[in-house]
Amino acid sequence: MTTQQHRPDPNSEDYGDEARSPDQGQPGKGHPGADRTWQSLALNGTPGADAPAPVPGRAPLQHAAPDGHTVTDRNQPPQGIPQLNGAPPVGVRIGVWGASGSGKTTFLGAVPIGAMQHQQRARVNWVVAGMDPSSQEFLLDSVDQLVSEQRFPEATRAQRDLRWSFTGEAQATRRMSTRRQISFALEVLDLPGEAFNPRSTQVAEDLHEQAVTHLSSCGGLVYLFDPLLDANQQTASINYFFGMASQMAARVRDEGRLLRNGRLPHRVAVCITKFDHPDVFEPALRAGWVTQEQVGAVPRVPEQQARGFFDWICNSFRGGSARLVRDALGNFFDPDRMSYYATSAIGFRLNASNQFDYRSYVNVEPDGERICSSPPTPINVIEPLMALEADLRGTAGRQSRGARPWRGRR
């Protein structure tokens, strides 16, 4: 006696569940594969087999429309998915690291603005675009908040994966007679600042583990050092640096990737943030670290003096735990693979002629919550990413050609 097979009612709660074994998962109602799986069981995979007799009171079973999933596939070569036009940009993994409240989200949000303005002071034009919907949405929201709404982006509360493509053209120079096309991808894992503090109980333990895994696997790191935030014992940079660095060192050691001198292999861009803030800018100006090419030009710390500026911040301006951070950076990372930048995500307030005026340069309203009417002019936000990308790609190219390991820059 043959047992009549039963097809579940599509309107019942168990539709799509009874026709599969328990280890096949639990698809939602109306899942396209549920009906096909039941029919394949009924027909036993044999073309032309008799369908089961209809169940009394139910509509007779209709054969599924041809959808290409037939036995003839076994006799035909597989077809690949359509390819995008052109090769995707080669990606580099760069981690953004800093204490809670150090401005990681604002720094990342200023990247597209810095890229648009970069051509005004350099010979490279950059175009930044998201490589997935969430990354593109972050770019749009960041520009809208910083420029249109004149407010700072909200701090990161959960993990956020950002993947951006950078395409540009380097103009001809005296050394290079022709223009050079540049294309690369940037992958950043944006995490709450507390994820970088092993002692913090404000984030889940698995989020901290993700921070260690991500930073350990990155080729380059942007380390944000906030000299004003460091004055607060609860947000002192050492609390967010030493524990993370030591766990990274243990992870990389176990993977056999430490340098011969025992240091981590990463290239690190140290960014001293809030250069535009009067409590940082004025002391730096009096100490002689700030220069201005001409009246109206944006003040800067010269690139060759950036390392000395960081030492001064740690030794004289801040002191205390800041000196430990400076010493720990040189202890965990190779000094020849580190670079330094005086950074501001929003820059100085400029006058109507787009010039710096020392009489009115503060770009944040007195409440500290809103940006002034002058559009943000990020300082050294795109430059660290460009330098890290060039170092990482250059090193990969030399190693693929069998060259000696690159020693980097100071």
* Overall strand count: 7
Number of helices: 9
Helix content: 25-40%
Radius of gyration: 29 Å
Distance between the termini: 85 Å
Indicate the proportion of strand residues. Answer: 5-15%
Order of helices and strands: HEHEHEEHEHEHHHEH
The overall pLDDT, averaged over residues, is: 77
How would you sum up the global shape? globular
Q: Biggest sheet, strands in spatial order? A: 2-3-4-1-5-6-7
Largest sheet properties: 7 strands, mixed
List unreliable stretches of 5+ residues.
12-52, 63-69, 81-86, 397-410
Report the structural category: alpha/beta
Secondary-structure topology with pairs:
Layout: H1 32-43, E1 91-98, H2 104-118, E2 124-130, H3 133-148, E3 160-170, E4 180-190, H4 205-217, E5 220-225, H5 237-254, E6 267-272, H6 278-286, H7 306-318, H8 321-332, E7 338-342, H9 382-400
Parallel strand pairs: 1-4, 1-5, 5-6, 6-7
Antiparallel strand pairs: 2-3, 3-4
Helix pairs in contact: 2-3, 4-5, 5-8, 7-8
